[in-house]
Amino acid sequence: MKAAVIGAGLAGCEAAWQLNKYGVEVDLYEMKPIKRSPAHKSDNFAELVCSNSLKAQRLNSAAGLLKEEMLCFESICVCAAKKTSVPAGGALAVDRELFSKLITDRIKSAEKINVITKEVSSLPQADAVIIAAGPLASDSLSAEIKKLCGDSLFFYDAAAPIVSSDSIDMNCAFTQSRYGRGGDDYINCPMNREEYEAFYEAIINAESAELHSFDRKKDVYEGCMPIEVLASRGKDTMRYGPLKPVGLIDPRTGRRPWANLQLRSENSQGTMYNLVGFQTNLKFTEQKRVFSMFPALKNAEFLRYGVMHRNTFINSPELLNSDFSMRKNPDIFFAGQITGVEGYMESASSGILAGLNAARRLFGKNTVTLPETVMMGALSRYISDPSVKSFQPMGANFGVLPALENKIRDKSERYTALANRALNDLKRFKEENGI
């Protein structure tokens, strides 16, 4: 009985660690140092390519809750991060060299893990395979993944921002579909002429994020115009594009708005809405400032900001089960950013669940999906939810969790309650399932 894990990034290391913990022989494939992606510099595993911050530590933050849940599974990454941390206020930041070296040493000394240094061009022979390729998977591995996924493999991420539904000011918005076709499927955020012109001036003068060299490719923007680029082509171009008001009547005025932004539900629970057509490369602070100029979004909580960069990921809602196995081939699992989870710890957490479930399958046990009230469970359910049609990668945020039975107005208290519920439910679930 043997498993193969492709890729020794954060997700691959977590997956191999879980398999090792449960006594499964693992071949861990990693192409470094023979070959590196344009972003990688070190020969060590679990290399942090961008920031050395793993985000907030406090429990009443989505990032802090996620790491606390991961510790319940003896996460190799979170344990290494705590041992190699550097001062960073309320965040968990690490000495990236020491962090990667510690994980590499632990993986290489694990009893059941056999590290194989080679570039994978075809899936290895094993009883279970976990593909933990990062966003910059090699061409040969990408070709192999494309054979498995067909047209459901994407090579860049052009995502619009997502806001929490309960932060939208419905006194300044209305629900309606264009020309009355369908139900009230969209939340509409109207602007009058004065508001629109102020928004136009703000967006054409807003600051864009700097792209990495490996992101600067012509095909990154093919077929997905950034809203700020569209705006730069003329004052009314947005009003003939994503902000077109045609087919809509604002019930407050009885007239068509001068401009209108539509929000579309991002999940089946209706807790998250994305800004339709607002793919953007603006800095996150600029997105918050400029997009909050819509009256309905003046107090919006941004659960995810818009991004446009090279990113290899699959259409997971179409391809994956919530245990990270493929629907058409349950002996093949995916883990990491390629599944559409976004962020260092999110990627690592998916590796934990893929490794755990691969081990359970190999031992003839049912695979598990964590409760939707648990951050790890909510993310795995989001990336495998067939109702998610315009799939965008997602990081940990409290918007993916179901609301509390008793509404709490204070945000800090509400988040604390959500975190406590998550950890209690996770503890109970592990006990009931012998994990």
Word description of this protein:
The chain has 435 residues and is an alpha/beta fold. It has two domains: 2-158 and 309-433, FAD/NAD(P)-binding domain; 162-305, Elongation Factor Tu (Ef-tu), domain 3 (Beta Barrel), CATH 2.40.30. It has twelve helices and 16 strands. The chain has helices spanning 10-21, 62-71, 76-83, 96-109, 139-149, 193-204, 227-231, 284-291, 316-319, 344-362, 375-382, 411-433; strands spanning 2-6, 25-30, 53-56, 85-86, 91-94, 113-117, 128-131, 153-159, 162-164, 174-175, 186-191, 259-265, 272-275, 302-304, 307-314, 332-334. The strands form four sheets. Strands 10-11-12-13-9-14 form a six-stranded antiparallel sheet. A five-stranded parallel sheet has the order 6-2-1-7-16, with helices on one face. A three-stranded antiparallel sheet has the order 3-5-4. Helix 2 (62-71) runs parallel beside helix 12 (411-433). The longest helix is centred in the C-terminal third of the chain and has 23 residues, at 411-433. It is globular and about 70 Å long. Residues 213-223 have low confidence and may be disordered.
Q: What's the helix-strand series?
A: EHEEHHEEHEEHEEEEHHEEHEEHEHHH
Rg: 22 Å
Tally the helices: 12
Q: What spatial form do the alpha-carbon principal axes imply?
A: globular
Write the layout of secondary structure elements.
Layout: E1 2-6, H1 10-21, E2 25-30, E3 53-56, H2 62-71, H3 76-83, E4 85-86, E5 91-94, H4 96-109, E6 113-117, E7 128-131, H5 139-149, E8 153-159, E9 162-164, E10 174-175, E11 186-191, H6 193-204, H7 227-231, E12 259-265, E13 272-275, H8 284-291, E14 302-304, E15 307-314, H9 316-319, E16 332-334, H10 344-362, H11 375-382, H12 411-433
Parallel strand pairs: 1-2, 1-7, 2-6, 7-16
Antiparallel strand pairs: 3-5, 4-5, 8-15, 9-13, 9-14, 10-11, 11-12, 12-13
